[in-house]
Amino acid sequence: MGEIIKGKPVADAITESVIREVEEIKSRGISPKLAIVRVGADPSDLAYERGAIKRMEKCGIDKEVIALPVDISQDEFIKELKKVNDDENVHGILVFRPMPEHLDEDIIKYVISPEKDVDCFSPVNVAKVTEGDETGFPPATPTAVMEIMKFYGVDLKGKHAVVIGRSLVVGKPVSMLLLKEHATVTICHSRTQDLPGMCRTADVLVAAVGKAKLVDDTYVKEGAVVLDVGINMDEDNNMCGDVDFDKCIEKASMITPVPAGVGSVTTSVLAKHVVKACRILNDI
Ligand code: NAD
Which residues are in the Tetrahydrofolate dehydrogenase/cyclohydrolase catalytic domain (predicted)? Predict the structure, then answer.
C-alpha cells in the first residue's frame, strides 16, 4: 500500500517561503503584484481566479483582476494587455486560456511581456523551459508536479519517467522539467502503442490525459511513484483524476490524490513566480 502524497503540505511550505520573501521585498518599498486578465466568465476560470486571489492575499501579494467582455475585439484585447505590460506596479500577468475563438492566441502570445508572463504563455518562456534556462517561468501545473516530488524526496536522477500526454500546458513542459532533473523521459500520447506496457516500465508515472481513471493497476510497476494531473468527473459526477486511485495505490510507493493533489499546489507556484518576476524586474 503506497503513501498518499497530498498537495497541501507542499503548498503550505511554498506559501511560507513566499510570505517571508514578500516581507523582505516590501521592506525595500516594493509591493509584488499579480494582474489576472480574464475574458468572459467561464466557471472554471472563475474557480481558479478565486483560488489564486486567496493565495495572493495569504502571501501578501497585491492583485488586480482585469475582467474583459467576452466579445472584446482582438485589437481592444491587445491594447488592454499592453497596458498591463506597461504598468510598472504589475510584476506578474496571468491570462486565462483557452481564450474565446475569435481571439488569436498565436498572435497574443507574442504580446504578453515575457518578464511578467508567470504561467508560460509567451514563446520566450516556452523556449526557456526547453533550454532549462531558470530565468523563465514554466507553467504552474508542471511546476507543481516537480515541487511535489522535491517536497517528498523523490530522487529522479537516472530514473525512468513516463508522461502520458503531450500538451503544451502539461505533458511537454513536465517532460522538460523531468529531463532537467536527469530522469530518462518517455512521452506517451493517444497514438502510443501498448500504453499499459510503456507505463509499467516507469519508476515515475505522470498522467496528464483528461480521461477519468484511464490508468489502472495494469499500468503501474510495483513501487512506482504516480502523479495524477487529470481533473475529470466520474460516472457519479465526483471529481477524479486520470488514475484509478483505489487500484493503483496497491502497487505505487507514492501516489497523489485527486482532488487535494497536484491541483492544490498550482496557486502557490503562481505566487512564487510573481515574487521571482518582481525580483528580476527590480534587479533585487
Ligand atoms: P489536453 O487535452 O490538451 O491533452 C491531453 C493529452 O493526452 C494529449 O496529448 C493526448 O495525446 C493525450 N491522450 C488523450 N487520450 C489519450 C489516451 N487514450 N491514451 C494516451 N494519451 C491520450 O489536456 P491537458 O490540458 O494537457 O490536460 C490534461 C488533464 O490535466 C486534464 O484532465 C486537465 O483538466 C488536467 N489539468 C489539470 C491542471 C491542474 O491544475 N491540476 C491544470 C491543467 C490541466
Answer: 5-119
d(CA 183, ligand 1 centre) in Å: 21
Cα(230) to ligand 1 centroid in Å equals 6
State pTM to two decimals.
0.97
**CATH number, domain containing residue 150:** 3.40.50.720
For residue 258, report the distance from its CA to the centre of ligand 1, in Å.
14
d(CA 240, CA 231): 6
Note whether 144 and 258 are same-domain residues. yes
Domain that holds residue 164: 140-262
The residue behind cell 508515472 is 205
Residue nearest to atom 39 of ligand 1 (CA): 263
Which of the listed residues 94, 113, 132 is the one where a domain comes to its end? 113
* CB-neighbour burial class of residue 10 (10 A; exposed 0-12, middle 13-18, buried 19+): buried
Which amino acids bring their CB within 6 angstroms of ligand 1? 141, 164-167, 169-171, 188-190, 192, 195, 208-211, 229-232, 262-263, 266
pLDDT tens for the chain, 284 residues long, are 899 999 999 999 999 999 999 999 999 999 999 999 999 999 999 999 999 999 999 999 999 999 999 999 999 999 999 999 999 999 999 999 999 999 999 999 999 999 999 999 999 999 999 999 999 999 999 999 999 999 999 999 999 999 999 999 999 999 999 999 999 999 999 999 999 999 999 999 999 999 999 999 999 999 999 999 999 999 999 999 999 999 999 999 999 999 999 999 999 999 999 999 999 999 99
Residue 167 makes CB contacts below 8 A (sequence gap 6+) with 208
Binding residues for NADP(+): 165-167, 231
Nearest CA to 4 out of 270, 263, 258, 234 is that of 258
